[in-house]
Amino acid sequence: MFFGNVGGDHLAAALDVMNDGGRVALCGAIAGYNATERTAGPDNMANPITRGLTLRGFTLGGYLDLAPELGRLMTGWFGEGKVAYDETVVDGIDHAVDAFLATMRGGDVGTMVVRVG
Question: In this structure, is residue 91 part of a structural domain?
């Protein structure tokens, strides 16, 4: 299983190592969001055919009807400690720019959070 939100060379790398019958969920293509020219795509699109891969795109809008159920379930899971996540916390609004720049340089793990107050 590969969750793709970058596209480009990340998707190509994933397709190279997918096992037969693997699944790819495509929800974005960050690699091309700010491109001024068409970005290069994977050159290994025969892999989905020869390995029987499933590629499926989706957006949040297609699942908004499930939001109430997700909220209920996630609230319980968070409370029970069943949801694990990584975050980098920087204290103070005066460090917000540093936090942003660290994110752009890959200097964070998980979600970058600036704690204020």
Answer: no
Q: How many domains does the chain have?
A: 1
Give residue 48's identity as a one-letter amino acid code: P
Q: Would 19 be classed as within a structural domain?
A: yes
- Would you state the torsion angle of the CA atoms of residues 13, 17, 18, 24, taken in this order, to the nearest 10 degrees? -20
Task: Select from 13, 68, 81, 79 the least CA-distant residue to 43.
Answer: 13
pLDDT tens digits for 90-101? 999 999 999 999
**52 assigned to some structural domain:** yes
Rg, C-alpha atoms of the chain: 18
The answer to whether 47 and 26 have CB atoms below 8 angstroms apart is no
Domain extent at residue 10? 2-65
Residue 112 lies inside a defined structural domain of this protein: no
Q: What is the Cα–Cα distance from 67 to 65, expressed in whole angstroms?
A: 6
Answer yes or no: pTM beyond 0.90: no
